[in-house]
Amino acid sequence: QVQLVQSGAEVKKPGASVRVSCKASGYTFTEYYMHWVRQAPGQGLEWMGWINPYSGDTNYAQKFQGRVTMTRDTSIRTAYMEVRRLRSDDTAVYYCARVGVGATRVGYFDYWGQGILVTVSS
Amino acid sequence: DIVMTQSPDSLAVSLGERATISCKSSQSVLYSSNNKNYLAWYQQKPGQPLKLLIYWASTRESGVPDRFSGSGSGTDFTLTISSLQAEDVAVYYCHQYYSTPYTFGQGTKLEIK
């Protein structure tokens, strides 16, 4: 069955960087785009961008351009997202989510990782 | 950016009764070339990731109980739970994937009356 397993919680200081991971199983990793969405405590959902695991192409929400980098390692079926210059308002649960239609960046999200809490605090 | 607005923010319904959640988009999410509405609904229970319920506005995801249904087109959408069960207590979100940045409604918290 399809699973997206994310790495553990992180605590970082303001100005630091964090890299979170999302390991996929149960399907062909390179056939489905991966998106990242975050949810600040008690807040709504914010889309951050996507990566094409086949080509490595990426697209980021304008808000995060220059501060976020999405990558992947196809040999271990894992997607990564790095957020730099962390601020307190980056404290959130970060989710990876798979597009439910193969070979397209456009679509609903049919599988989600369990989420990673990233806490930014001095 | 397409703004998604859900109503109500919270809702209390008796077990076995119908629950209805509205979602309005600031612009149409209907793609004319394929006549599909790029709108999904998700359920989120505390401490859990989102679970896909409905996509293309009205297609139920495999394994989702048939008491969940989606309707609407263009800018106005509805999620209906025909007979509320205790396990349906959750926050529900609509989501447009018509254009980036993808956006979500603010969520509707569903409780038992």
Structural write-up:
The complex is a heterodimer of chains A (122) and B (113). With 122 residues, chain A is an all-beta fold. Chain A contains no helices and eleven strands. Chain B is an all-beta fold. Chain B has strands spanning 4-7, 10-13, 19-25, 30-31, 36-37, 39-44, 51-55, 59-60, 68-73, 76-81, 90-96, 103-104, 108-112. In chain B, the strands form three sheets. In chain B, strands 2, 6, 7, 8, 11, 12 and 13 form a seven-stranded mixed sheet that branches. In chain B, strands 1-3-10-9 form a four-stranded antiparallel sheet, with no helix packed on it. A two-stranded antiparallel ribbon of chain B has the order 4-5. The model of chain B has no long low-confidence stretch (mean pLDDT 97). Chains A and B meet through strand 5 and strand 10 of A and strand 7 and strand 12 of B.
Gross morphology of chain A: globular
* Most residues in contact, chain pair and counts: A-B, 22 and 22 residues
The number of E-state strands of chain B comes to 13
- Which regions of chain B contain 5 or more consecutive residues with pLDDT less than 50? none
